[in-house]
Amino acid sequence: MIPDVHIYSGDLHRYEQQHESDDINTQEGTKISAHILSLYQAGEPLFSKELLRRVSQQLKAKSQKVSVRGLDGVDVDFDIETGQVFDAGDPDGEPFILYFPIQFIASYGFGFIPRIAYCSLWIFHNLQKRDRATQNLISPGPCPSAEEVREFFSKTKQAWEASKERRQLESILSAKTPTVHIKKIVAFACGGMNYFDEAPWAIRSAYQHALILNIRDVLRTRQECDNIECYAQDPEYTEIDKDVLNQSGITVLGDPQGFLEVDDSTLVLSFGPDIPVRQIIADIARPAMMIWDRLKPCEDELNDMNMRSTDPDSYRLRKMIQSSYEAIDFPSDLEAFKHTDIKFIARRILEALSSLHEDGIVHTDVKPNNILLDFDKDGTKVVEAKLSDCGDAWNIGHDINPKGEGHIIGAAIFRSPEAMLQLRWATPTDIWSFGATLISLIWGKNWHIFKPDKVSADHEEYAVHVLIQQARFFGPFPLSYEDVIDTEQNQILAGVLYYIEEHNLRKPFSLVQDEEVTSEDKEFICKIMQMDPRDRPTAKQLLADEWFNLP
Questions:
Q1: Phi-psi category of residue 364: left, alpha or beta, with phi > 0 → left and psi -120 to 50 → alpha
Q2: How far is CA 248 from the centre of its chain?
Q3: Which of 225, 295, 335, 536 is the most exposed place for a label (fewest CB within 10 A)?
Q4: What is the pLDDT of residue 84?
């Protein structure tokens, strides 16, 4: 199961006790937000090595107060509150740094707290739960031994070495010669491997650490040198993780030492972190190479919900990439998979979703790019498929009623209708995304059924055009939506219906004629792609479908 992590901020805790949400001084908050933006746009860094070094030294010294310099140049003290007791848990764990992107501090994401409004990093504590009767710490549960983790990592490295993705990456690295001699690799937020049952997040972690070693070996050969150091920074590492990684040639660094290591001779790795790694790097260094999540086009980075992630893009980051780097996309699988491979992949993804959904956990970002595949030695048959990237997973529970508000999740072209409308989403949203993914796997050639033809991803009405695509193939929206949508959402759906009829776009998927899709495929997909999430089958039900038994 996903680790049960609880964190605490003294300033936030006291603020929530003293203020109701409607007591926020909007006028003062708006004024400070505008000032923060003006400082940022004038080039004032959110982060600097001096800031990180200074905070790190205070934490190492076990200071009772940690001084943090804000964007306005004013020092703010954070109290160290280890030992305090609350109903939620005890902040007995070591204090740690929590970093915030420009989108957060310019919009006071936790509510407006004037004292620390200009700070791009806060001091938090990990909460540790105690038994109320005995006062003993509650153990998080059993973990595999060092030998089991070592064996798991070894097996994953072998799978990575046999994969098509490894060969593609090596081809890219071989074709590009860095202008600077790379002396070290620094990876952020690769995650821990010390979980039972080879959980998806542990598999993702193991693959990313295998990638670090693979890149090191490629660079050693290209540069004809052996002295390339490998570092990894992630607060999730256990002592067993550290031991296994150290024996493999990866040195684990505490926060923020990884950032302090980054310079112009560094290759940086980061995928889906819980902190704004890319914005930090853009402020403190110009690495020789970065391998990380692709930038997304955006016209309004402060208000676009796609930018409200833990590692969002920014104007400053895009400017750095455009002016100083050549961006190379990782190649997609352009050809369609064999039908037997598609069914194998589908079964494995549904098995992963079924396991998550039993605990009420929603993955939120099911798409082809988050499926890890292993091929046989000839590269012609899929022998393993894993659902990766659980960094945005949410424990929602088992209530699937969409009535209520929900935030934007996942990639738009794989996002469910209810999530597009910002209704309350639950486990059925993963089922829709699985269906959209299955369609892309069947057709191949990097084709997506819900990708709009006439507007780009940064267009202000892109989400509406995705809804139009969803409704033209699998609509119309059923009358059951009347019970869960408000007036504005009803107007959106009316506009979608009008647009489809006005432009004669309706094209029921069940009537699609294409040699790539069989009648059995269409029947299975139509079972999945129900516009009302309450009508969609569960992952467990789909696993029992006769489609898997058909040739």
A1: left
A2: 26
A3: 335
A4: 56
pTM: 0.62
pLDDT value at 68 more than 80: yes
Rg of the chain's alpha carbons, rounded to an integer?
A: 24
Q: Tell me whether strands 266-270 and 289-292 are parallel, antiparallel or unpaired.
A: parallel
pLDDT of residue 315: 86
Residue 551 vs residue 289, higher pLDDT: 289
Task: Give start and end residues of each alpha helix (H) in 190-276.
Answer: 200-223, 239-248, 257-261
Give which of 312, 300, 192 is closest to 241, Cα–Cα: 192
Are the C-beta atoms of 128 and 94 separated by less than 8 Å? no
Instruction: Strands of 368-504 (E only): list them.
Output: 371-375, 382-387, 394-395
Which amino acid is present at 325?
Y
- The SS3 assignment for 486 reads coil
Query: What CATH code would you report for 146-324?
Result: 3.40.50
User: What's the rounded Cα separation, in Å, for the pair 288 and 223?
Assistant: 14
Q: What pLDDT was estimated at residue 23?
A: 47
Tell me the CATH class for 339-549.
mainly alpha
Say yes or no to pLDDT of 4 above 50: no
CA angle 50, 53, 58 (to 5 degrees): 125
Residue 537 gets which letter from DSSP? P
Q: Is 292 helix (H, G, I), strand (E, B) or coil?
A: strand
HSE-CB of 487 using CA atoms within 13 angstroms: 0
User: Where along the chain do its domains lie?
Assistant: 7-126, 146-324, 339-549
The DSSP line for 32-86 is HHHHHHHHHHTT--S--HHHHHHHHHHHHTT-SEEEEE-TTS-EEEEE--TT--B
* 26 vs 247: CA distance, rounded Å: 53
- Residue 366 φ then ψ, to 5°: -75, 120
Phi and psi angles of residue 233, each rounded to the nearest 5 degrees, phi first:
-125, 120
Considering only CA atoms, which of 356, 399, 417, 374 is closest in space to residue 540? 356
Least confident of 12-26, 120-134, 336-350, 449-463: 12-26
Q: For 199, how many CA atoms within 13 A lie in the half-sphere containing its CB?
A: 19
Which of 125, 121, 115, 134 shows the shortest CA–CA distance to 84?
Answer: 125
Strand partners, 387: 371
pLDDT of 13: 56
Judged against a pLDDT cut of 50, whether residue 115 lies above it is answered with yes
Closest of 235, 269, 384, 277 to residue 47, by C-alpha: 277
70-97 tens-digit pLDDT: 999 999 998 876 655 555 444 455 788 9
pLDDT digits (tens, 9 = 90+) for 509-522: 888 776 667 889 99
pLDDT at 110: 53
> What does the DSSP 8-state code read for residue 90?
B
* Whole-angstrom distance, CA of residue 291 vs CA of residue 201: 19
Phi-psi region at 444: left, alpha or beta (left = phi > 0; alpha = psi -120 to 50):
left
d(CA 242, CA 251): 8
